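Example 3.2
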Amino acid sequence: MKIDRRAVILLHWLSFLLVYLIWSTTPDWPPWLVQPFVAITAVWVGLLVVRRRVFFKPGPKLDGGARLAHRLQHPVLYLSLVGMALVFLTNQPERVTYIVVQVIFFGGLMHGLFHLWRHTALYDGSLRNITPRFLHKVL
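Structure, written as tokens:
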């Protein structure tokens, strides 16, 4: 389980970094950013297939709409990552790629804000799940 957690933490932060860099280089999308992004997406999908579920479940403090949002956002983000990788692999027109990059960037931003809200409003420690242990003392 620890290897799973470490892999998920690493994948989250690498995905964040690559999506941000791809978004910030729009519309040039250098291959040295796109190729690692596609590889990381393949690893995400591979882990999902092997485990047959997402890694983190909604905590006990989440209820109602927030619980539903947690359950929906992870599959949507997985599909978005796969969609973005497919757009790059199939050389879609620049406009299509631009829209997909914007959607995944802002979807990921909303995902992060949701967990920041959970961590600060509900005090459920959700950021501790996805940050390396050496950062836990600042959370």
